[in-house]
UniProtKB/TrEMBL annotation:
UniProt keywords, alphabetically: Ligase
Protein name: Phenylacetate-CoA ligase
Keyword Acyltransferase: no
Lineage: Bacteria, Bacillati, Actinomycetota, Actinomycetes, Geodermatophilales
Residue runs in coiled coils: none
Amino acid sequence: MSPKPIPYYWSSVDWPRFVADYPPPPLFDQQMARTSDDELHELQEARFLQRMTEAWAVPFYRDRWTAAGMEPGDVRGLDDLAAIPTFTSEDLKRSAEALPPFGTHQTFALDAMATPLKIQSSGGTSGLPRPTLFDPVAWEVQAVQFARAFVAQGGEVGDVLQITLTNSLANTAWCASTAAMHWSGMVPLTTGSGAVTSSVRQLELAREWGTAGWVAFGEYLKILAETAESNGIDLRRDLRTRFIHTYLGVDTDGHLRRLLEEAWGVPVYDNYGTHEVGLIGYECRAQDGLHVNDDTAVLQIVDREGGRPLADGQAGNIVVTSLHRSVPPIIRYDLKDLMHRSSRAECGCGARTTKLSGFLGRSDEMVKLRATSVYPRAAQDTVQGDPRSTGEFLCVVDQVGEGISARERMTVRVEAKPGADGTALHADMVTRLKVLFGVAVDVEVVPSGALAPLTGLGGEGKVKRLLDRR
């Protein structure tokens, strides 16, 4: 039996065609500006139908869709999108359990091995992380998405981009470094997190090597600012930072953004993405909503209870269909993230795309307290807005009582800055969080730094805001 031919990366994709299909900056803004709504719909529909054809050959989709009474050919365009059942990350986990280790949704790609593949993962808070395969198109499109964001946020050719996430099983750092080097002419400085390169050294490198842009989570940017202050480094005077690419979380009143912009003296830009589909939305210099990469994804906002599609401007779960992914296809993935979208319109930056709001919370973290739906991450704005707090918090949910009298209880642990009046902070948090949530919650004020072991602050990945002890 002769060995399989090696699928070389350089010859696995028609690169001129790739650039035409998924234009990097500045071509994307130019192309979107001159593309009419009808032309964009036609482009999206053609890519969607191709992904549907591919997905019918994948057991994960074929079995789910057949069980729902669908047949090939039932879906004839984007107008039929709502008729397709959604799936969640839990369905992907069950897929991997049914056909370990990669699942019924993507094992076909490894069996064929007709293209180079890379394994990245998402999740893993309990048990093994969830693996996802990337072929060159999926990999490079995500990099193009990030490159569009960097240029829209002020990145220029030759700029040093400091990436404070580690190139690991998670793919955000890889997307950023590939985007910088392959698609935007920037120079990636892959320092990794503070656990890899200390915060002091991060700042020293930025000062000596001329970092112009940063990729970092908001929580780590605060740590860097505190480290600079304690080490006599003036972020505004000593560094050459021009922009920051971050993920602000639930920052509807802008407390975290203002805190970071005041500390760093530069614009801070919010972004939103997911492991499987990439950077779905990004802010430009206008800071007026998140531009959607409309040529790579179709988004729906659906009612979080019944899955009914909602009109623009209404908040609900974001459901994404990838237009570029074949390995694996991603068709109507309910991310359980709460957002709202707005119709396609020209922005002050010149781009013409649909837009997303900032992140509003996660529907699967909803807690029912005395018949009221509470979303723990929504506490971010209230806690960040109090100068006596470090901005760090953790919502702890447990169950009290037994039988018919059992109920859920939520305690919001809030870190106080050294020297702050903890009694007054506690009283104000009780009042403000009751107004925010519409129901009273318990509050516990804890010392600065006390929550890091539970939230993961200073480590890799997103900071946890919910500890569910039910």
